[in-house]
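Hello K.,

You asked for the raw outputs rather than the summary table, so here they are, unedited. I folded two proteins back to back in the same session to keep the settings identical. This is the first:
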Amino acid sequence: MSIDIRKTHSMSLEDAQQVADELAADLAEKFSIEYGWDEDTIVFERPGVHGEIDVDEECVHVRARLNFLFTYLQPAVEKEINRYLDEHFQ
């Protein structure tokens, strides 16, 4: 199963990266996910879950792959990502 969410924004790249980092921290706290930056991409994972948050001047793109045992998390993770993006990226 996979998650693929895009949200356009009008922020500076630096501000968008800061908000994306806060999103990753929020996901880490709620879903026990480890994360870190690899250039302009946040990489996050936990056993059974691997994903990226790409940030550029126009868009934030969140992708995640969940193995079969973690498909039950998909609705909760998607809901949290969409809530956060709608709240912080305008």
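The second followed immediately with the same parameters:
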Amino acid sequence: MRPVSSSCPGRRGTPSGRRARGDTVGARVAAAGRAVPLTGIGDRGHRRDCRILFLVSTRAAAERALGPHPAGTRGGGIVARISSARPSAEPSSPEQHDRRRRILRAAARIGGEKSLERVQMHEVAKEAGVAIGTLYRYFPSKVHLFTGVMAAQVDRLREQVHAPAPGTSPEDAVADLLVQASRYLMAQPVLSASMLHASNTAHVATVPDTMHIDNTFRDILLRAVGIDDPTVQDVTLVRLVMQCWYGVLQSSLNGRASMADVESDIRLACRLLLAPRSNAPRAKKRRA
């Protein structure tokens, strides 16, 4: 009597030669990443059936977690998906800068209508009039793309910032600026939610725009406070204000706070954090 297989209770085991041949089939299935017909295998081959089905189901589970492999990368889809977390290319020529700006504008238009998970990269490439490879060269993922959109929005905010009115306290100047920015972002909630999610998810090592956002926004707030030569404490306090603002804005986008709550929370945070600021020298006022 043949021994009963422990891996498939109730089925008979197979000779060593059949097991070796089953291993070869399993290797082919793992490499191909797809199921093969299991016809012609009787009871004695059931152990091999189990091995093949296990490999196929493991591959299917991995694809469900990471997404299916791109076309033309059969057998290497998972590796290709993981390797996509590479740094983005920086444009060097005027034409490349123009293409990158077109991509960001297209992403902002589409992202204003669709949530982040519904935005398709090929749709952005088509809207921008660029090849899909060009899009992925500058923005390897949607996190890169919408972090870049937020960086462009912060640059636009920097150009629009004006000196505070005479007699305005530093904390009120920063609060006024953040309230203005909040109103602008809340007017486009779908895009703002995508930008915040992307920038909060992005890692500084692979998404350079995260550092650009932080540094630019910090400089905007320090200018509003009126500090030319900030101390370590000044930078720390401004960073805390930025983090508070991100949190308040996210709560509002999630429906947990009204715009009135956002404004009052921002002003309170600025008073608590910036009123007791350091005695760093203030920017000199220009004479009329």
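The domain at 147-277 is CATH 1.10.357.10 (Tetracycline Repressor; domain 2).

Happy to rerun anything if the numbers look odd on your end.

Regards,
P.
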